[in-house]
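Hi R.,

Here's the chain you asked about this morning:
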Amino acid sequence: MHMNVSAGPAGIDLRPLSARSVVLSLLLGMHPPELPVKDLVRLVEPFGIGGSTLRAALSRMTASGDLRRTDDAVYGLSERLLTRQRRQDEAVRPRTRVWHGDWEMLVVTATGRGPAERADLRTRLTALRLAELREGVWLRPANLVRALPADLLETTESYTSRPARPAPELAAALWPLTTWSVRARALLARAAESPLPAARFTVFAAAVRHLLTDPVLPPELLPPDWPADRLRAAYAAYRSELGEPTTPTDG
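And here is the predicted structure, written out as tokens:
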């Protein structure tokens, strides 16, 4: 059974969370990311997920490599999803530095890749908050404090550049800033009007997913009243409200 969170006055349609999504949402937000079955049963109950449904989901998730299970019936994230958790933590608390006008530029140099490899590379570059200027050329302002994965440099070449195009104009062409801002404000409005715990969890799951797509641009390249910091602050207040270090996100 899923709890359906439909579109309301805030004008957004939030998809229901499946048993798998709720379990991953809980574990991705915990440090360390593991819970005994008895705690999972208690925590998924507000979503209308019964014990038998939960156990079936846990079995499938363990078989598919999403989870690992210990002998004392404690379930934790697999190594693959620990990488995702680190990404999610960084989305909530991105590390930035003062921007002096330089841009990171990655040029894809590998050839002969199949569709799956190309799609995987695009996903990785997007996760690093780079945007594609044209095929094989990705860039962003050099204001993030992070190192590129070493294996990524086997298929790309990295440069520092200063495009001739005005930086605000280039940023607006690379990222859908208006669309992102509209959805962020809608999520803030929905969070303010959702009194039920399960509904609020679902809203903040969507909020964390949205923060993963925030380009984290220098302030001078953003539209006025950019809502990303307000969305992060609302999430931080939600965590305090829960009284535990939980970062909801949809799996």
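One quick note: The first strand starts at residue 34 and ends at 36.

Cheers,
M.
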